[in-house]
Amino acid sequence: MKEFENKKVILWDFDGVILDSMQVREKGFREVLANYPQEQVEKLLEYHNQNGGLSRYVKFRYFLEEILQEETNDEKVAGMAGEFSEIMRKELTTKDNLIAEVLDFIEAQHTRFEMHIVSGSDGDELRYLTSQLGISGYFNSIEGSPTPKISLVRDILQKHKYNRDEVCLIGDSINDYDAAHENRIDFFGYNNPHLKAKGLAYIEAFS
């Protein structure tokens, strides 16, 4: 029997859970959309803040199709997402943005648990950032968009044949909860009091 079959499993969201990046990502959206009317950009940022677990691909498409009411295509969305990723790669490689109590927990417990990152952020960008931050070795896999989070979780469960009763997802958005619920695994909210107010299982502090 493989060793991981005897371990419990934690699937981690990244932004807002491991990395305090919301202000930097908001700055990135503002820079990419600098040539658009401010009022429309603010609508996108409101959508972004309400849907932390959704990918930038979904958010840029929402901006173009729902806010601007324009026809768009995958190439234009990918271009915006690529520009956004370049900004993130420059801005998010400082360890000062890591959430200290979460990093302490991961460093202390990574041999007791199987750990994976499942994020709405771009997968290639995630692997770059975690490498630059020196934390990639704690995780069995680091996966992100454009694959939806529900699919990322499902794929990990199937690939590793994990017992769903031994797996939880820790996230800071309702979209993280949805990914856990759809895949029939436990969810724990963190760093978002609105999730606690909804009556969901909630981690006050890792310390």
Any overview of this molecule?
With 207 residues, this protein is an alpha/beta fold. It has two domains: 3-20 and 96-203, 3-Layer(aba) Sandwich (Rossmann fold); 22-91. 48% of the residues lie in helices and 15% in strands. It is built from nine helices and six strands. It has helices spanning 22-32, 38-50, 56-67, 74-91, 100-109, 123-132, 149-160, 174-182, 193-197; strands at residues 8-12, 113-122, 141-145, 167-171, 186-190, 202-203. The chain has a six-stranded parallel sheet. Helix 9 links the parallel strand 5 (186-190) and strand 6 (202-203). Helix 1 runs antiparallel to helix 2 (38-50), helix 2 packs across helix 3 (56-67) and helix 7 (149-160) packs parallel to helix 8. The chain is globular, with a radius of gyration of 17 Å. The chain starts with 7 loop residues before the first strand and ends with a strand. One of its GO terms (cellular component) is cytosol. GO terms for molecular function: phosphoglycolate phosphatase activity. Pathway: Organic acid metabolism; glycolate biosynthesis; glycolate from 2-phosphoglycolate: step 1/1.
